[in-house]
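Friendly challenge for the regulars: who can give me the structure tokens for this chain first? No prize, just bragging rights.
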Amino acid sequence: MPAQMPRLHQKYANEVVPAVMQKFSMKNKLQVPRLEKVVLSMGLGKATENKNLVEIAMKDLAIIAGQKPVVCRARKSVAGFKVRIGDQIGCKVTLRRRRMYEFLDRLIAIVIPRIRDFRGLSATAFDGRGNYQMGIAEQATFPEISIDKVEAVQGLNVSVTFTGGSDEKSKAVLELLGMPFRKK
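First reply, four minutes later:
Bragging rights claimed.
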């Protein structure tokens, strides 16, 4: 028996697609921007001084994402930052399909409301092709991370990638999914 679709995926299929089709007068549901992947990444500038930071960040990112992250290594040497080629400078994880929808559901419903002094997400963080990027100041806003066990406060980047589309259409999809954008 196949597993049931995540709640946010059902909402996308049943409510968001028809609403976006009507708003932009589309004739085919395949014209609606579709969520392709979500990439979570942590840049670790201080990892050159403390090698243990990469392990800590990977452990936290694995708990948040539900799958094992990969280490990102430096491609160039930068003397000003004391970075050499091959140094570990971050980690990332790519979520697709079921895990992507489950993560976005947790992000919208639980994590974003827990951000201190939150006044809405920037509506200008789109890249021109419909993809959206946002940053979270500390990993402790995720309920999976125990505040008592946080060894190093670390930021987190979230990149939501859509298949073909414009910023305007992707923003409409995210708004209908419940993403709280800042009012002008």
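The chain has a mean pLDDT of 79. The longest strand covers residues 35-43. Your move, everyone else.
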